[in-house]
Amino acid sequence: MENHLIINTCPVCKGEKFKPSIAVPDWLVSNETFNIVACESCDFRFIENAPLPENAGKYYETEEYVEHSDTKKGLVNIIYHFARKRMMKYKQRLISDVTIGKKLLDIGSGSGYFLNYMKNQNYNVTGVEISDKAVKLCKEKYDITAFSPTQLINGEISESFDVVTMWHVFEHVYSYDEYFERLHSGLSDNGTLIIAMPNHQCFEASYYGKYWNGYDTPRHLWHFVPDTFRRFVEARGFKLVKMKKLPLDPFYNSMISASYKKRFTFLPFTFFIGLISWFMALFSFQKSSSIVYFLQKK
Predict the structure, then answer these.
(1) Which of 61, 167, 206, 256 shows its CA 20 to 30 Å from the CA of 198?
(2) What pTM does this model have?
(3) 23 within domain boundaries
């Protein structure tokens, strides 16, 4: 029996021929190396030897994975919490620009920080989270209920939502077709699905190479860019209506990437690399460190 995921068909174009792109170690947990390949037909990239879904959990078992632990230990996590707080208003504005509805589902809700912020802005919020520890934190800290991904896929969340968000989550999802089918039925007719993902065409990805935080193997399975993601969603009943950037991501990604490469972070230099990436994205959206995709039903 194979001990890793076998992908014979490209999720975007159904192509069956792939070429090596880059080999990336798991810098966070295991130090295992994972191979990212590119489809020869459409250039979509994904991990060739990703762990099976039932084995994926061990690659999240570290306090450094702050989305689940909510830890504030260490400089990197302190900066993460600072940046997260600053991004709340920006994310709210992105949402309010596309819908006046107040029913929000956040998939990959972590410990509930974003949901609590939106709850305080009079949104009716629900979460979906794979980590039992994070679900417990969300309930105890904010009194917000988060369901499991299995409950979502099985249709146990019966409500219809005006907006569904996935902030740096979709690249982790194994059963992408099941998710899209469920989200299509669970989104109101005029609702918006918002998906944010890293973009490997950015400057800091080319600069840091295998150390780039956006690869984050094996947790990040899929590596979309605007062209491949548009094709992907159109084949699944959605249309891409708008794209935005996450302005702080080039700086955060540069800081994390440098820490993987040097095992310490010289902030002035990583800020400079982030600034170059941010500046280049002003002239080409394809160079954005992370891209927020806004989807609606066809």
Answers:
(1) 61
(2) 0.91
(3) no
